[in-house]
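Notes for week 9. Today we move from apo structures to complexes. The key idea is that a small molecule is not decoration. When we ask for a structure prediction with NAP present, the ligand SMILES becomes part of the input, just like the chain. The input block below holds both the sequence and the ligand string. Read it once before you look at the output, and try to guess where the molecule might sit.
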Amino acid sequence: MQTRPRVVVSVEASADGKVALTREAILMHQPSAGLWAAMTPSAADPVGIDVLATVREQYGCNAVLEGSGSLVPEDGVPEELPAYDGDTAELYRHFLPPDITGQASPPHLWFTVVDSRGRVRWTEKHENWDALVLVARSTPADYLAYLRRERICYLVAGEDQVDLAQGMVAMGTELGVGCVLSTAGGGLNGALLRAGLIDELHLTLAPALIGGLGTPSVVDGSPLAVGEPPTPLRLLSVHTDAGGSVRLHYTVVRG
Ligand SMILES: NC(=O)c1ccc[n+]([C@@H]2O[C@H](COP(=O)([O-])OP(=O)(O)OC[C@H]3O[C@@H](n4cnc5c(N)ncnc54)[C@H](OP(=O)(O)O)[C@@H]3O)[C@@H](O)[C@H]2O)c1
């Protein structure tokens, strides 16, 4: 069996486990961002920690993983891309230019997004991290050509959707990633769970209720089959603060 990076999930939720206010509005945008922040009362002894710094120190974590749903609303219409009329065969190979992949790591960090539908447009460049996109054989050629023009690295894993297990293994073998911190929403966390890829969970709960059937929660994805058991967790630590927030840290118990 090929080894894969450790996968640590970090998520902030309301007390009823919702990770967004509605399915339509992503948290990065107003008014959701402000309303979300207001759910956590300030406290002299806040439970919040920098999970990325923690896992960097603990596991040498050098990649963050996001779902496309964190960056683009489900009903969002991405800016149209020019049509690609060249030979597409080369596009469906990993794109890993050595001048980008050869950087020292750490401190170098991969900001990785799962995006088989080619929805994310990359308009910002950051000094301390590079974008990495996980795509599939179904990803439009126009999008892969766009990533190549923008010199954004990508790994091809899976057919209709990104095969997350394959993607994780490729991140390890192609880029030397030993630990991935998922800061995704429920859709990607659910897919990671069903693929048996979650090793640890940092969960911070705010003292508020959101409710709403269909509002993204900590782990969504496909339901369990009848008779299929839940994934057991072992509690590693719990912290509470005077504002009423709770931070839980679990490890997944493997059978
Ligand atoms: N509170 C928090 O800590 C937190 C953290 C992150 C996000 N959020 C919020 O949560 C909301 C987004 O949550 P969401 O559940 O809609 O989006 P999401 O978690 O981004 O889920 C969609 C992503 O999962 C991928 N995916 C889904 N099923 C898959 C499968 N079977 N195999 C492979 N990949 C699969 C999709 O890939 P494709 O793109 O390839 O289809 C897409 O990248 C937003 O409002 C965001 O602001 C909250």
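The mean pLDDT is 94.
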